[in-house]
Structure formats: C-alpha cells, structure tokens
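Below is how a single chain appears once it has passed through the pipeline. First comes the sequence as given, then the structure the pipeline wrote out for it. We keep one example in the README because the format questions we get most often are answered faster by looking than by reading.
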Amino acid sequence: MKNQECILYKPFWGRLPTVVFFLSICCLMASCSKEQELGLDFFAEESFDVSLIDTLSLDVSSVLPDTLATDQSGRILVGYHQDPLLGGVKVSPFFQLGLSSSSTISLEEEEVIYDSICLVLRYDGYTFYDTSQALSFTVHEVMEEIAYEEEGYALYSSSSFLYEDIPLGAYNKVIRSDGGEEISVRLGDDFGQFLLGLALDDEDGELDDEKLKDYLHGLTIIPNLSTSGPIVGFGLDSELRIYYKDKSVFPSEESTISFELGSDEGSINTTLYFNQFSFEREGTVFSKLSPSAKSLSAAHSGNMAFIQGGEGISLRVEMPYIRSLLYSGGDFLVTGATLEFYPLSTKEDENMPAPSTLKVYWVDEDNGLLQTNTDAILMEDYEFGRETHYEVDVTDFLSSQLYNEELNQNALLFQLPEAFNASATRLLVGNGESDTPMRLNLYLLSI
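Resulting structure:
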C-alpha cells in the first residue's frame, strides 16, 4: 500500500523546481483579472487548475481531560446556573485565610470593643451567564484541613473538603456588570468575636499563619441551587475583615483587622485556594460525557460539541478521510486549507458573547500535544449576525497529515483563550451535519 501511495502522490521535495515554477505562475495569475487567458499563454501542452474541495467529512467530538488543577488560577469563582443545553453548572471556592499586615493588634482585651465581621469579595470583572439575575450564596466554615492530595501538589476541580452545614452568612443580590464592585457579606458575630480573640496578644504568643490554620481551616462559598444566576469571579485581594473600636485612645477610634483570602504575588501568607466545579448533565444530549467516557462524538450529541471551562472540556476535530486524496489520481499540491465553524447560540447567549479567539493545538489520538497551531479567529458578521463564524488556517496540519507515511489519528484540539481553571465559559459548535455545518475548505493545485 505504501508503494502505491508514493506512486500516486510524489514527494514534495522531489519536484521542488516544478512546484516553485507553478506557484510563481499561480501568484502571477492571481494578480490578473483574465486568469484563463494568461494560463493559455503560458501552457500550450500542460493542464493547470486550482480547485476547492469543501465536502470532506470531519469527526467532531467533545473531550474531557483526566484531571484539571484549579488552584493557582488567580481568581475564585462562585455561582450556579441551569444551562438549557449543558445542564447545571455549580462553582464553589474553598480557601484558607492568612495574615496580612493588619491581622494582629497590640491591645489588651479590655481596650477593644468588637463591632462586626464581613467577608469582603472584590469583583475582578469576570462573569458568565446572565448578570441581571441575582447572585445567591452562603458562606460556611471548612471543618478539615485544606491540603494537597497525597500524590502531587495540586488541588483539582473535583477536590472536596467537609464544611459546616449551618452557614456563617448569606448573600442574594444582583451585582453590577461593569466591574469595580465590592461585595460585603456580614458573618456571624460569634465567629467574629472568636477571631478577634485570636488576633489579640495572649498567653499563647502572637498570632501567626500556622496558629490561625489550627483554629480556622478555611471558608467555602456555596451557591444557592434553587436559583439560576450568573457565575462571578472575585480577586485574591478579597479579605475577611473584622471591625472594632479602639478604646486605648480618646475619643475611641473605629479600626479593622484583615485576613487575606489567598496567596498571590507579594502576599505575606502561604494559603491555599481552589475552585470546585460540578456539572449536572443528566437529561441532556451530553449526559454520556463522564469520567468513564471521556470522549463524546457530536454525531451522538445532537450534532453538537462544546468547549467548557472548569472541567477543561475541549473540541476535537479529526480529518480521517484526508488521505483519500492520495488515491484520487493525478498530481496536486495543497495551496491552502481553512477550517470554518459557527458558534451555536440560545436565547440567553445574547448576554454571553463568543470568545474572540480560540487556542488550537495539534494532538495525537490520546490528545497528547504535538504542536501549537495559530489561533482560531472569530469573524463577526456585524450587519446581520448570521455569518459570524470561527476560521483557522490548517494548511500546515493538513499537509503534515498527507506527507506522514504512517496512518494516525492526529487531530486539532480547540480550547478557550483563558485558563480553563479560571473560567466557567462555554462554547457550543455544530459538526458537518448541523444546520450551520463545520466545513474544511481545501484548495488544490493540480499539475
């Protein structure tokens, strides 16, 4: 079979002079409005043709990685949304608390009057789903040490720790979508007075990170599952803040003690945090995608595939029949190849614009990285919106598949432009059988 392939498709480098000559002529013809007449002037006995093939079948699927570390993501996420196509999406952050420069006070207990305690969350600009709906959640104390799993140094989207059922506080409000907002959640006074006592100098010595973690393992934020709302990102500059009055001066002064939410560059503490994701796909066309079945063909999910943050779900596109060109007869060159596909939208997608770019990778049959491709670009139809689609140049990938002597199942893998572990963004696309079909445009130069 290999001998037959070599006969029908001559190696590129074996006819480089001819290729260079014909490509030069092709460029010259492209600059002339009378392409056929110019071709006849140059070719008296040779045939020359550039053709477009856009009917090759593609294998499209959604693929799920083994694990996805969601610590060190640079933000915490919280929220719950019932997606009409993907099912329920729930995100809960778990985080330790550490010292800041104002975590201790050099006062006697009788010089301090406790006022209140609040969890202050600073909105970092990321939202997904409809922000006109209320963000609703409760804050809970974590009841066991937040620590790395036995093997490795990471916390994952599926990691979990026990927490107290009775909440310390609750929040239910529509947030601003233009950023810059600070959410303050009032917590229980017993909890606040306990922490204030730790912050005061006592017989056990001054408070430090380790002592704080011994008494307070951390906090978690649990979204309300009875309300479908947005998923919102908050920065690591968020904090737990105790308000008190200092009676050592007259008149007494209002002051605060702060505990930092997570480790970030420049932080004096070494705390851990991560985002826990859970997905409820039962009853959807994607219900068969699970840890035990990590790939789902679009042909078995309503001719749709999707990309989603949190679990790290990617879009895989394989071109299994591209080598059939080798058996079509004649000599040809691939002069260009583009892949086009359309973002599928629902009514609520009006408030969720599609990502302007997607990362693209060459991968093997196990989705192992082979090479990075150029990004897929969203080509927007600003006038009507009907032709908005992604486009990516896949000439190099397709040529490499043709020149590869070994049969393989290499493919293109598409992912979100931002880190999966810091996002709940999702994107739906159709395969070649959908109403807005994915299409491979292949340009061939026949010689």
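Confidence is low (pLDDT under 50) at residues 1-44, 264-269.

See the next section for the split statistics.
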